[in-house]
């Protein structure tokens, strides 16, 4: 078994691929490129940043479905959530969160491997960029980007491998192995508080460097970090930490310059960047993972069997809570007045015909299910599509939730109205709710706005809410094998244990 730490911290393992985009890399593979060449100049170091961007959309561990950030969204955010349905009883172990304590499982190991690979490469940039030749402002900007990547990776790992903040005794429980340089020695787990303190420090430093550099990413570059990505990472991390003042202030800063998308853009398939995309991952026909990409798992028009046979659906309970005046309701197949198989949701011939009439881009061989989604599509087959990581809409929702917990109900209400009515999503929307009803409204509109984008499970964990999926007989639309109830203190408090791949080689972290 290979030592994971050596895999993660060697900069020459960054994959550089040619791309159709001028802003993406167009250079020789660096499997034979030494560190001195990579960091000889700031121009070369900028390519290393681009290499980390590329790490977010690669196939990993020889597994067809492990495709960088898309896998985190689909397998760890959507599948095990409360509001996302797919007719996959054979995946019940993942969907029902039974692998959290299986420390030898590839599903347990994948996020650790993936994010520590990003961390190792970000650490190399931080370590070497100061010695590169080039303008000081370029060095500041590149280091800020590397620190943003590092903070983002640790934030995502903390959500998966650490307890929710409310169960952490103010951060006293286990955090992560904080590798901040290129050393491969044994290191203990930090506390969760120490982990968040490091995330905050990296983001504070990054924001300061972005400002002092006076630079930003190129026009049209939505896939590499800038100061808004740092603010967005800060907002999400602070919300996870229940640091609501920081969550609210950073959410507002993150969305500056990124106005909410139009209704037309909302209906365009979430496969191309628009004005509210703060950060995403690039994809094109000649820069694709084919059947293994995110959009080949979810894009409603994909020719991949993962979509044709197993279309992705919203939960019936959430669908029924979307007001009829809300344009987002039409992005899911309403079966009212039609028949379908209530055991699985498979549509009748009449309901199937309705789906093809409404969305003729469906593949001719596609199966159709009640409540299937038409929010996310592919640009090209079988699953080409750009992938979003931060949108302004999320920042509005973070601000609303933070202001609620800061006892500023009127501000939370106004933010929800600005997001929902002001953007045209629902021109009749109003919010006067207070107390627990207001919090439930915020949760509902997170579920509606962010459906399918990888937030479902992470939100339920953060809130400490019980996951409760129901069959058709009980008012839901889940298969019996997937209609489970999971309480906040079950499945190791929704926390993935540290993989054996780490504990086998790091003598200061003991298996638990």
What does this structure look like?
- By secondary structure, the chain is mainly alpha-helical.
- The chain is built from 21 helices and six strands.
- The strands form three sheets. The protein has a two-stranded antiparallel sheet with strand order 1-3. Strands 2-4 form a two-stranded antiparallel sheet.
- Helix 9 packs parallel to helix 16, helix 10 (244-254) runs antiparallel to helix 16 and helix 16 (392-405) runs antiparallel to helix 18 (435-449).
- The longest helix has 26 residues, at 136-161.
- Residues 1-32 have low confidence and may be disordered.
Summarize the structure.
The chain has 512 residues and is mostly helical. It contains 21 helices and six strands.
């Amino acid at each position: 078994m290979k030592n994971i730490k050596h895999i993660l911290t060697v900069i020459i393992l960054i994959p550089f691929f040619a791309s159709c985009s001028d802003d993406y890399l167009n250079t020789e593979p660096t499997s034979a490129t030494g560190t001195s060449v990579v960091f000889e100049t700031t121009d070369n170091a900028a390519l290393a940043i681009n290499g980390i961007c590329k790490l977010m959309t690669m196939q990993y561990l020889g597994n067809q479905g492990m495709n960088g950030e898309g896998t985190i969204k689909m397998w760890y955010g959507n599948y095990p959530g409360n509001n996302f349905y797919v007719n996959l009883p054979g995946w019940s172990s993942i969907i029902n969160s039974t692998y959290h304590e299986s420390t030898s499982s590839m599903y347990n190991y994948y996020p650790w491997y993936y994010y520590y690979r990003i961390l190792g490469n970000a650490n190399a940039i931080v370590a070497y960029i100061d010695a590169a030749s080039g303008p000081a402002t370029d060095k500041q900007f590149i280091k800020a980007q590397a620190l943003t990547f590092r903070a983002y990776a640790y934030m995502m790992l903390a959500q998966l491998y650490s307890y929710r903040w409310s169960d952490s005794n103010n951060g006293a429980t286990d955090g992560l192995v904080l590798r901040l340089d290129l050393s491969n020695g044994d290191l203990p787990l930090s506390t969760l508080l120490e982990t968040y303190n490091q995330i905050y420090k990296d983001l504070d430093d990054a924001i300061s460097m972005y400002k002092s550099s006076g630079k930003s990413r190129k026009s049209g570059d939505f896939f590499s970090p800038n100061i808004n990505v740092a603010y967005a990472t800060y907002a999400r991390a602070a919300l996870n930490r229940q640091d609501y003042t920081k969550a609210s202030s950073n959410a507002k800063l993150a969305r500056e310059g990124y106005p909410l998308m139009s209704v037309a853009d909302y209906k365009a398939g979430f496969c191309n960047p628009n004005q509210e995309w703060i950060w995403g991952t690039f994809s094109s026909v000649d820069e694709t993972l084919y059947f293994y990409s995110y959009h080949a798992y979810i894009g409603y028009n994909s020719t991949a069997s993962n979509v044709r046979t197993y279309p992705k659906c919203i939960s019936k309970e959430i669908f029924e809570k979307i007001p009829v005046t809300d344009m987002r309701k039409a992005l899911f197949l309403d079966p009212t007045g039609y028949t379908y198989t209530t055991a699985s949701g498979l549509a009748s011939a009449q309901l199937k015909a309705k789906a093809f009439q409404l969305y003729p881009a469906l593949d001719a061989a596609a199966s159709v299910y009640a409540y299937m989604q038409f929010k996310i599509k592919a640009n090209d087959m079988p699953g080409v599509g750009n992938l979003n990581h931060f949108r302004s809409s999320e920042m509005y929702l973070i601000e609303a939730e933070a202001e609620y917990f800061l006892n500023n109900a009127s501000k939370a209400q106004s933010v929800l109205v600005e997001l929902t009515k002001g953007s045209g999503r629902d021109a009749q929307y109003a919010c006067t709710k207070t107390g627990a009803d207001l919090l439930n409204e915020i949760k509902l509109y997170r579920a509606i706005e962010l459906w399918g984008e990888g937030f479902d499970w992470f939100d339920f964990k953060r809130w400490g809410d019980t996951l409760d999926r129901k069959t058709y007989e009980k008012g839901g639309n889940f298969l019996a094998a997937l209609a489970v109830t999971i309480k906040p203190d079950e499945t190791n408090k929704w926390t993935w244990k540290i993989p054996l791949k780490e504990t086998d080689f790091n003598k200061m972290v003991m298996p638990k």
